[in-house]
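Predict the holo structure. Ligand: FE4-S3 cluster.
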Amino acid sequence: MFCFQCQQTAHNTGCEGNAGVCGKKCGTANAQDALTNALIGLARAVNKKTPSEQSDRLVLKGLFTTITNVNFHEDNVRKLTQEIQAERNAIDASAEEYDIRNIWENHEDIRSLKSLILFGLRGMAAYAYHALALGYTDRDVLNYFYEALAVLGEPSDTSKENFERLLSYVLKTGEVNYRCMELLDKANTESYGTPVPTEVPLTIEKGPFIVVSGHDLHDLKLLLEQTNDTGINIYTHSEMLPAHGYPELKKYPHLKGNFGTAWQNQQFEFHNIPAPILFTTNCLMPVRQSYCDRVFTTSIVSYPELIHIGEEKDFTPVIEKALECGGYGKDHPMYGVNGGNTVMTGFAHGTVLKEAGRIINLVKNGKIRHFFLIGGCDGAAPGRNYYTEFAKKTPSDTLILTLACGKYRINDLHLGEIDGLPRIMDMGQCNDAYSAIQVALALADAFHCSVNELPLTLVLSWYEQKAVCILLTLLYLGIRNILLGPTLPAFVSPNVLEVLKETYQLTPISTPEADLKRILG
Ligand code: SF4
Ligand code: SF3
């Protein structure tokens, strides 16, 4: 096997041998490569024809399946590959597959640029899939998957023209992902309303409950409906936390609070948990003995021997397990990583921009000196303490916007308020980077300047491939001076890094003190 798509890749070079750091086994990794080969075959078959709904769905499922911590089930990956091959044969059996090893073994710059495109497509497919689950699609977004997959399968030499062409596809992936995040924002807010600021308890009330993890709001909504009046409470986990801000989800009184912190802590937070856990997307870790009989998967997530809830979304097995486990005998307080017992969410662009006038005045009269967007994925790397320390050291006249599961490093800190606005405002899941962009654009408009001239710094943490597509969107939008950590991607070659540094001043994090000093002058 060879895989180097995520931040925790072995030695920051690549996972090889019998299994990856994430627990993905060699057989599954090779099956995912074969799946990607088949997707390129399908893209070649479609080649400018109008694809069927079935092709679109298979492309999204296929790419989503290969995201880190989504699918550990070799047989299911192979079954999906066969479906993709059958679809290709039905369209154009002469279209050939591609061998992804041609990318892994290519010149490091070609490998780097094609990896940026491929991993960006994987992240974007997840967002397109969530939008599709709510009935929202965008033909241009869908078409781009075929176009870019076909580009991955083109022979590549190391000429300057080819470097430039692939680089243009890297940025185009960011451009299309912007549209895709916009689509998902529309799908989420039209389906569930504009998020409103909401305080979320971290205490688990006594009695039966279900923990829901991942990003899929549609799955959560269906589970809330099916558990109505059953006496079972529902708790979000990890990236599901922002669900509490949506009016159409928060109206369910049994959506009670949030369980635990970010994904990398699940193996000890789920130890002996008296309740089932439903994974709707990443990040699932290899399950431990003390709770493996309680983990359920749905949608694209899959793991050998766990019960999978199929497309009919009948959650009866999860509900029965919740009643069987019974929950805690009395209220069970839990705490964030800094010891807090509640967290806030719901500051999406619709809500923040309602306060735009007030925020602009606070900037003009010097009460807000700087904005930080501390966003991205959490993970196990020790260097990720940087983000907690950074937030703690920000001066009291600065505002922090958060996104994605990296927020768990800081979301239980109480850093006070500026004129009634909490200093930490959570904008939502990783895909809600769209919200942050809308706020930045509105501020730039109000101050008649570019986003790069705003008193705003993006301090990003990355782990999996959704973070890749978001980074590409920010680069496409021309946003400079982004701080990135905890390490730089193994798939960014020195030459490609040079371009990113030169053109966008993309900067690796150093220490919170040094970075803050430089930013705030
Ligand atoms: Fe390694 Fe990350 Fe790939 Fe898992 S997803 S095999 S940890 S690079
Ligand atoms: Fe987290 Fe896995 Fe990326 Fe959506 S849940 S941000 S890591």
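The first strand starts at residue 198 and ends at 201. The pocket of iron/sulfur cluster (ligand 1) is lined by residues 3-6, 8-9, 15, 20-22, 24, 29, 68 (CB under 6 Å).
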